[in-house]
Amino acid sequence: MFLTITTTGTPERPATDLGYLLHKHPGKAQAFSTSYGRAHVLYPEAEDQRCTAALLLEVDAVALVRRGKGKGRGGAPDAALAQYVNDRPYAASSLLAVALSAVFSSAMKGTCQARPELPAQARPLRVEVPALPARGGAGLVRRLFEPLGWTVTVDPVALDVKFPEWGESRYVRLVLESAELTLAEALRHLYVLLPVLDDAKHYWVSEDEVDKLLRAGEGWLPEHPEQKLITSRYLSRRWSLTRSALERLELVRLAETDDSEVEEIDNAVEETAEETAEEAGAAVAAEAEAERERSTPLAVRRREAILAALRACGAARVLDLGCGQGQLVQALLKEPRFTEIVGVDVSMRALTIAGRRLKLDRMGERQASRVKLFQSSLAYTDKRLKGYDAAVLSEVIEHLDLPRLPALEYAVFGAARPRTVLVTTPNVEYNVRWESLPAGHVRHRDHRFEWTRQEFRAWAGAVAERHGYEVEFVPVGPDDPEVGPPTQMAAFHLRTGTTPRSTTQNTTETETEKEAEAA
Length: 519
Prior knowledge:
The chain contains 19 helices and 14 strands. By secondary structure, it is an alpha/beta fold. Helix 3 packs antiparallel against helix 6 (183-198), helix 6 (183-198) packs across helix 8 and helix 8 (227-234) packs across helix 9 (239-258). The two termini are 39 Å apart. Residues 69-81, 270-282, 289-293 and 502-519 have low confidence and may be disordered.
């Protein structure tokens, strides 16, 4: 099988810089051993104006048969003729993708010690693959490469030129051209999409393939319109791996949108119980001290207050927004009056733990039909959240940066618009009652702010006014005559026949809805 990469240049930026980028000297023909044959790198032309590097892969058909048989284990997907006579030595596939990664590893990573400025430079590129199996036809080839900035020329190969009535084969001749991409980006595109088009792997696909996909897909796969198809095919349609990859890609997308790190987005659950006890620190010690004289923990009192408010408003279909490990969802499931319960969180780790806590895999059919867990960010509108009786944000808003609150406000009160919204948050005035909590410290290391009663009432009143709600305030925990309760709760109730007033946001309504559809 064969692949060429061509670039053009000028005297100031000669095309022969391709040799530096690939770490292969244009004046030499080099050979490298691979698991299933031998890879050769040569330069058919190497001038300042035009330079072409070719990768020729000689596949050992006997080694393929000896090391694995069948789809995904070394054989052709259809084994058209026999074990030893098939398309594997000739058609671009995962064999060529692995050879690209092995022979051009530094180029794929975007490193060049001799000329460190070169990898970041976009340059005119032309990639030719004479024989490419394309399960999905020329249309799929275009759908995969064109969103990445490639101009695609794809010519189907006839089954037999002497018998045109036989029609076209599943092979195409592919030419990709772009002046906007770096060489590293081009190689990563090929590494992922060649086996995707072939829809086969010559080796067993294990969990480490998810990491390989995310590394090679960095910067383009999270936003690709064919993300699900690419992920499924690359991972040989193994559902457990595909689901894991898609969840991680969604976190990457959210992190890029928020201009933050993935670890900051997926922070709802601590790694271990030991870390939880240590890192929650002041929050755990403070709450333990406050509860010393009471048998009921504050977390339980919060859930009881929320359940009482939901019963009072007659809610049957309830959203738990920022559900964390699913404690409230679990409590809601115990009451038949709540016919549909949806737990939503941006953290997949939290949702995984919630699923284990609820024993979803062992839950009866009738009970399972009442509960759903899904990933979503409250910074963006989500059509799945519309039409519910009530939504709960229990100890959620304080985990957002203040500039993000208008986006959450619109997503919940402006777009989803449940009849009732319950919001609980710490009362910072009560912190002085906890001697073990240092002055000026918040209760949890991830709290971005903690409000006084006046600040919370001002925010809640403004939200209610803008979106057509009435709001009442409920103390949760012992109501200290000087500093108030440890937790404050606002209960919003939608006024009948009202429409929300416009509100200042970081994004327009149209942009927000487009982001929600993408999510």
